[in-house]
Specification:
single chain, alpha/beta, 8-stranded antiparallel β-sheet, 7-stranded antiparallel β-sheet, 25 strands, binds 5-amino-5-deoxy-1-O-phosphono-D-mannitol, repeat, GFAT, Ntn_hydrolases_N, cytoplasm, EC 2.6.1.16
């Protein structure tokens, strides 16, 4: 969480830094700040509580001149959101920004206070500024001071420092939080996400764990964790430059919901022929691994966890391979048994989720056959540290509420399941052709689901004045209900829960009354009759029902039950399809509630802290 941008250029960089922060605002948005140094060592620091726009207004209203600068948008971990706690933090001539958590900050703070340093914030970051200042007194360079500092820090962080007295360089250290360096012509940049720099460069270098780098206008020098000078690869990015624009949409979330047909087409392109999944397109090592996998262990958080939960049904029913799905923050702290020929699969939009990454690192030591990631961000930590990666091609997702990342993860897993099933002889040509046909048809079906937008908008007022909502589903539609409830609570702040509909009578039925809408995901499948009985249980107790039902499901609207008719589609891809109206419902409820849809309170897009 938190966004970092830095620049060393001949031109004034304040505008570039603030624009970079705007593009990173999804990572944290409770305060923002910038420190810029000019060629005569004048340092201007501006910090503001609130959104990046507050900072932009402040920067525009004064002269913030200079070609070297660092900037930060914050998601508070230590200390409330306030101007005093906003980065950059200073110690003498040193200014520092930081992303992540310094776990031993209390101990370091005590040591630094004993040396006479006075703290002006409640943040863990301020210890870095004082440590760099202290170490610089006995170092030959700023980069050496940062190397010495990094050795004393425990935790996960990306941190950048600038020395007012030497504006020709900035230095950066990476340990657990991503840092990318952007190469310009006669100017260089850095950021916590390449998205921040796409307006100034396309050439990027990702720092590795433990790297410390020095960046000047002409050179970038990288040292690895042992202090050795090292070359890191420079890659050309083809990410869309306009990803940070909302276009004709009111919110990024809305844009991203409507981008799903394209995101799915891109994710499937080159990976399915007319009738088959092209296993090699999943990854170079995929065929060898998928042929012998006997168990799949999925690890993820949040929305990605929900997609794993939905895909579990496919792994077991279509490919005949057992599958467990676990929340990364739980998995990483328990003793687990690795079954023979188990494949570890991490799911993540960002590829930087701290718990998922930690779980991957732990699992790699425990004897999994291979570690695969299904991820949306090329070059992210999960992609680099996994044995192989199957990229979703959803495009940049900016809304904190994940939408197109979820549906593309599901499409990716369905392709993977199909490959496993075929390679292991459990899916024949005919079945494979049926699945692939459903995948080919999916984008058009999602377009169709999007046309329900107005109808769903009309339902939203029924939810916006309520405090609770219950989502019900059965089978693979239970995780779809889970995802629907996560979306609603996340952006509308309405408490929502998902239940496997068969579980109702084991407790939640007691909650049913006219004040709690009950949303039912009701495709036409083998469980439909069972689901109908569950719906009756709610109806008999005066519950208000909103049933998203297949056109042939046979539900009839009445006073306590509204039906949203969904055109019939293949049972196989229906979980992906039924996700879309749920996303639209949350979106419209949030609009009525007037919440900050793209940047809901207390959340951030990439959860890079534990
Ligand atoms: O980037 P990841 O997919 O690893 O992120 C995991 C969760 O933090 C994320 O899905 C979160 O739950 C979303 N905000 C939900 O919309």
């Amino acid at each position: 969480m938190c966004g970092i941008v830095g620049a060393v250029a001949q031109r004034d960089v304040a505008e570039i830094l603030v624009e970079g922060l705007r593009r990173l605002e999804y990572r944290g948005y409770d305060s923002a700040g910038v420190a810029v140094v000019d060629g005569e060592s004048n340092l201007t620091r501006v910090r503001r509580l609130g959104k990046v726009q507050e900072l932009a207004d402040a920067v525009n209203s004064q002269d913030v001149l200079g070609g070297t600068g660092i900037a930060h948008t914050r998601w508070a971990t230590h200390g409330e959101p306030s101007e005093a706690n906003a980065h950059p933090h200073m110690s003498g001539d040193i200014a520092v920004v930081h992303n992540g958590i310094i776990e031993n900050h209390e101990e370091l703070r005590a040591t630094l206070q004993a040396r006479g340093y006075v703290f002006t914030s409640q943040t863990d970051t301020e210890v870095i500024a004082h440590l760099v200042e202290w170490e610089l007194r006995t170092s030959e360079s700023l980069v050496e001071a940062l190397q010495k500092t990094a050795k004393q820090l425990e935790g996960a962080y990306g941190t950048v420092a600038v020395d007012r007295k030497d504006p020709s360089r900035i230095v950066v250290a990476r340990s657990g939080s991503p840092i990318v360096i952007g190469f310009g012509v006669g100017e260089n940049f850095l950021a916590s996400d390449q998205l921040a720099l796409l307006s100034v460069t396309r050439r990027f270098m990702y720092l590795e764990e433990g790297d410390v780098a020095e960046i000047t206008r002409r050179d970038v020098t990288v040292f690895d964790a042992t202090g050795e000078r090292i070359e890191r690869e420079i890659v050309e990015s083809n990410a869309e430059h306009d990803a940070g624009d909302k276009g004709k949409y009111r919110h990024f979330m809305q844009k991203e919901i409507f981008e799903q047909p394209t995101a799915l087409i891109n994710t499937m392109e080159g990976r399915i022929s007319e009738t088959a999944v092209i296993t090699n397109a999943i990854g170079v090592k995929a065929e060898e691994i998928l042929r012998k996998v006997e168990h799949v262990q999925i690890i993820a958080c949040g929305t990605s966890y929900n997609s794993g939960m939905a895909a579990r049904y496919w792994f077991e029913s279509l490919a005949g391979v057992s599958c467990d799905v676990e929340i990364a923050s739980e998995f990483r702290y328990r003793d687990f048994v690795v079954r023979p020929n188990s494949l570890l699969v991490t799911l993540s939009q960002s590829g930087e989720t701290a718990d998922t990454l930690a779980a991957l690192r732990l699992a790699k030591e425990k004897g999994y056959m291979s570690a695969m990631t299904i991820c949306n961000v090329a070059g992210s930590s999960l992609v680099r540290e996994s044995d192989f990666a199957f990229m979703t091609r959803a495009g940049t997702e900016i809304g904190v509420a994940s939408t197109k990342a979820f549906t593309t993860q599901l499409a990716a897993m369905l392709m993977m399941v199909t490959s496993i099933g075929r390679l292991q002889g459990r899916i024949n040509d005919e079945k494979e052709a049926e699945i692939v046909k459903a995948l080919h048809e999916l984008p058009a079906h999602i377009e169709q689901a999007l046309t329900l937008d107005k109808e769903i908008e009309a339902l939203a007022p029924d939810f916006a004045d309520k405090h609770h909502t219950l989502f019900l589903g059965r089978g693979e539609f239970y995780p779809i209900a889970m995802e629907a409830s996560l979306k609603l609570k996340e952006i509308s702040y309405i408490h929502a829960e998902a239940y496997a509909a068969g579980e109702l009578k084991h407790g939640p039925l007691a909650l049913i009354d006219a004040d709690m809408p009950v949303v039912v995901v009701a495709p036409s499948n083998d469980l439909l009759e069972k689901l109908k009985s569950n719906v009756e249980e709610v109806r008999a107790r005066g519950g208000l029902l909103y049933v998203f039902a297949d056109q042939d499901a046979g539900f009839e609207a009445d006073e306590g039950m509204k039906i949203i008719t969904m055109p019939h589609i293949s049972e196989i891809t229906a979980p992906i399809y039924y996700t879309v109206p749920m996303q639209l419902l949350s979106y419209h409820v949030a609009l009525i509630k007037g919440t900050d849809v793209d940047q809901p309170r207390n959340l951030a897009k990439a959860v890079t802290v534990e």
